[in-house]
């Protein structure tokens, strides 16, 4: 037994020594040469650069396997084989082919260009088979967004000479699955019908061919959950939750049924709101009035956020830019009430480290950056950030603007990320109107608000009718000379033919202007206009209306304005007012002084898609040592007082049925309008408006011989009307109808106007 154990021990030692010797011998082996074969496009030096072994490197199985992985990782090779002969390494590769062509067959829902953008494959790219499955997945996901869940795709590879391939995706789009039914469980306060109005997913209906909101989309359900939470959180349900959201294919496969399982929870009211401040030298601000929530109101998270924002803005205006407001909630479960305490303290002073702008592919960074009221290194100021966001939004270049505040590299630094979503900024419009004076007239206009991505505004307009031919072209340069200065230049050529008066008036000239902003958001604009005005009789034997002949008008103007509207193109809140003065007499043949005062106010009612707008203006012109001629007087109607022709209101020649407007030295006009989308699903993009317009034009100081003129002393005109605007796929379509409910017998009327625009 002893002898056997001794034998085993000796044998084990011998084997260990043997393997150590083998490994030591192997470890001492070096790669003497590396030979590469099979490569056609990728040269030897490039391949050697990819691998971590070289001539003279230690020969180990680990090094060889690592080299294999490194070559496969490049994506250049379909197969790689490594062999050795007396420490000579031979690498045999087979290169992946090059994509010669990418094609699609059977696709009707999406164009080839759209599908090509979705997949990551490009022409002349190195082709790898594992990229096919990724491309197929992306195309299928795209079709799912359009409600097509049965889409199948067969990729076909056509091998060509020279290691090139054509890749064709055969697409069977499958049926369109729409949402046939939406139901809610757990809602006690609000009906299914009310909740269906909140979410973005809609049940199928005959008119939804213009939208895709009734197509089943699983991702859209996440948005719907957010919409439901926002709806309940603004109505006192602070513990609301969506327990389940589910879409099920109906048994007959005609579409999907969607179910939301809700837990509303209790509804809480605000019992009281207190504002506690720890600021030194607290400014005299009534904080409570800045919070749009009353005691005993339902808790509303949006109104609370609005109140906090109002307090922050007021404190910033008073020099407390770095205050911090922390809400504290004391919940009384028994009475379902909340005591809200807003704690104001001095926050730490932070600085802007970096400003990053993303999402702009067309608009230059400099165009956006110049609207930002902060630069790198400035103290962090939320009020200025809010104003900057408003400035960028008011450019009209972007569909959406988001300003995100992110931590900087140091605790006292913050980064601003401004993410924009660009939209079409070019507009083409075609308008048709009918009036008792012109009958049918047409208007054509083209404009670009962001010319060449530099923020410049270019416009061209042409208006044609039996009596009017108006032409205008202009260019506006914001931040002229890289300063807070806006410059513009406009050329115009207008002709007005008045057959009733046997008269034609032509005006040719230009207007140049420069404007800048000052403290408290006031805007100042200075302008100069030079034009030649010619008035001629169509009938040389008829002198019933005195003509201006040829006169040169040289005038300077000044306008001061303030604009707090949330959106200057489609305002829902805020106000605008301006005062304009113009003096003609800087040379030329005409001398007068005119003044125009304008104002407007907009308010949107909470929880209701309803905007109330009120506007008004007043104008006066007085001759300086001379009477005001017809070509320089005010005319009223058209868009200022709808229901009347553009010059349909005011004093006119009354000796024939086709009464000719002579204008007036004074006017006022106003409007009260309601705008809403109530009654139309939001995805249709349809809004309606009802309005009443009113105004008057009076005062003629020119000597008028040989013809009778109506006496028109501040006689009120009024109209009532309605209109629709539809954001169609090709641009906005507007229709306005108005009826004059208070008028004079000699007024000229315009019942409706139709306008179709397109964007580019």
Write the layout of secondary structure elements.
Elements: H1 2-27, E1 33-37, H2 44-50, H3 61-73, E2 77-85, E3 88-95, E4 98-105, H4 112-118, H5 130-145, E5 152-160, E6 164-172, E7 178-185, H6 192-198, H7 218-233, E8 241-249, E9 255-263, E10 269-277, H8 301-317, E11 323-332, E12 337-346, E13 351-358, H9 365-369, H10 382-394, E14 398-407, E15 413-422, E16 426-435, E17 439-451, E18 456-464, E19 468-477, E20 486-498, E21 503-517, E22 522-537, E23 549-563, E24 574-584, E25 592-604, E26 610-623, E27 643-644, E28 666-676, E29 686-698, E30 717-728, E31 731-742, E32 749-759
Parallel strand pairs: 1-3, 4-6, 7-9, 10-12, 13-15
Antiparallel strand pairs: 2-3, 5-6, 8-9, 11-12, 14-15, 16-17, 16-32, 17-18, 18-19, 19-20, 20-21, 21-22, 22-23, 23-24, 24-25, 25-26, 26-28, 27-32, 28-29, 29-30, 30-31, 31-32
Give structural notes.
This protein has six domains: 94 residues, membrane protein fhac (Ubiquitin-like (UB roll)); 75 residues, membrane protein fhac (Ubiquitin-like (UB roll), Roll); 86 residues, Ubiquitin-like (UB roll), CATH 3.10.20; 78 residues, Ubiquitin-like (UB roll) (Roll); 65 residues, Ubiquitin-like (UB roll); 334 residues, Porin (Beta Barrel), CATH 2.40.160.50. The strands form six sheets. It has a 16-stranded antiparallel β-barrel with strand order 16-17-18-19-20-21-22-23-24-25-26-28-29-30-31-32. By secondary structure, it is α+β, with helices and mostly antiparallel strands. The protein is globular. β25 and β26 form a beta hairpin.
